[in-house]
Amino acid sequence: MQLAKLLHLQGFHITFVNTEHNHRRLVRTGGPEAVKGLPDFHPPVSCIVSDGVMTFGIRAAEILGVQHATFWTASACGFLGYLQFDELIRRGISPLKEAIRTNFGGQVYKIGPLHLLGKEMYEPETESKSISLNLWKEDLKCTEWLDEKEPQSVVYVNYGSMAVMSVLWIIRSDITMGSSAILPTEFLEEIKGRGCLAGWCPQQEVLSHPAVGVFLTHCGWNSAMESVSAGVPMICWPFYAEQQTNCRYACTEWGIGVELSQDVKRNEVVDAVEEMMNGEAGKVMKHKALEWQKKAREAVGVQGSSLDNFMKFLLDYDHKNKYRLAGSI
């Protein structure tokens, strides 16, 4: 949706195709108006931009005889890892027998972080600015709660979607078995006054709040980019897909994170939070995080690499090639 709105700002008419499952979730969350769109979103299709994992979009474009771009929404480092599947299969390392055996061709345009790029390009009263794909209703009480906290005193916890510090913990309604997460009464008593539990939140706003000192995350790419853009270091607990690769970059290459073990225990979390919030290593990571925040903002600014790549993609639109967009900074 962020990319669709950026293209719309450049004069393109957009028809946004969503899954039936997510469409129903959007209606439940925001009502029928959430999927109404704008009146100019329905002209004939001349180009298909499809998610990188939905390769049937490529075939559909070929059948229709229109141009196609694949938008890779995860990290560029993860994407480069996926391109090595062929080699893993060739060497007999990977058991995957049906993996894609050909690399993508064409040009790669690195255009993220999209939410920062959008802020640079939106006009103040742009009609499409209000359109979003928020699958859960945001609980705004968490930002009010943050307003009462000291700078960099809160641990923000969100797994996509506990220690002695204040903690803001986002627990999605679909993240646990059953209709909702049920926590022990003793736990709720223990965090009373210094803990806030919410079903969902405006994450970009929360990460940018001065009270947030560290982000405990699964290292999904959106969360990683939003954390980098806000200058907030991370405690990383990756689970699947390219989250482990993102975690390695955050902890090893960028120096803005620390990784938890898969079989994490209470003491490990306590030690990680204490070090990130009060330790010398944490101070270094906070400084590094601010450096990466500056780089992210420069990338979407005038003559920045991300903005330049986005405009180059638009200029190349008339060429009869297939393009690949990689959502990296």
Automatic annotation (TrEMBL):
Pfam families: UDPGT. Signal peptide: none annotated. PROSITE patterns: UDPGT. InterPro entries: UDP_glucos_trans, UDP_glycos_trans_CS. Its EC number is 2.4.1.115. Pathway: Pigment biosynthesis; anthocyanin biosynthesis. GO terms for molecular function: anthocyanidin 3-O-glucosyltransferase activity; quercetin 3-O-glucosyltransferase activity; quercetin 7-O-glucosyltransferase activity. It catalyses: an anthocyanidin + UDP-alpha-D-glucose + H(+) = an anthocyanidin 3-O-beta-D-glucoside + UDP. Keywords: Glycosyltransferase, Transferase. Belongs to the UDP-glycosyltransferase family. PANTHER family: GLUCOSYL/GLUCURONOSYL TRANSFERASES, UDP-GLYCOSYLTRANSFERASE 85A1-RELATED. This is anthocyanidin 3-O-glucosyltransferase. It comes from Linum tenue.
